[in-house]
Amino acid sequence: MTELVALRSSPCIAVWWARDNGWQILQALPGGDPDSSIVGETAAPVLVCHVVDSDFVTVQAASPGGLSWQSVLSPVMARGYGFPEEWIGDPDEVAGQAVAWAREAGLDPTPTEVRAALVAECDPLAESLVFQLAQALGFRFDDGADLP
């Protein structure tokens, strides 16, 4: 995944990754999201989570089939930052979109857990919400590896 043009052209530095069959999860620092061309480059569904100050997470998902959604994890904290309400969205509506995206991606999501992840607040760090959402969507990442 680190060889993708979308990642090489961003200010991201890959520091950790894990696999779940054909899926990969990558943690990159110090921030900056990869270019949206990643869906076209991989011809696969993509989920991008951006952790902001360990307080909340922006989430964007897209697929080659055209399904896309966006939201925020730790919405109360995001509102405290002044994050736009239209980005946060209605948790029931967003959960439905996320579940449809996951099913199109060949995953087996748990709708109630997806919704729970969307309304959960960081305790204490928002990074844990990324893994809560990933598991609810049906990902089963094993232990990852630090990257040099």
Descriptive notes:
With 148 residues, the chain is of the alpha+beta class. The chain is 36% helix and 25% strand. Helix 6 (111-119) packs antiparallel against helix 7 (127-137).
| Radius of gyration computed on alpha carbons | 14 Å
Shape summary: globular
Low-confidence stretches: none
Counting DSSP E segments of at least 2 residues, the number of strands comes to 6
Could you say which structural class the secondary elements and strand pairing correspond to? alpha+beta
> Order of strands across the biggest sheet?
2-1-6
**Beta-strand proportion:** 25-35%
* End-to-end Cα distance: 14 Å
Mean pLDDT score: 84
Helical content class: 25-40%
The major β-sheet equals: 3 strands, antiparallel
Q: What is the count of DSSP helices, taking H or I runs of 4+ residues?
A: 7
Element order: H for helix, E for strand: HEEHEEEHHHHHE
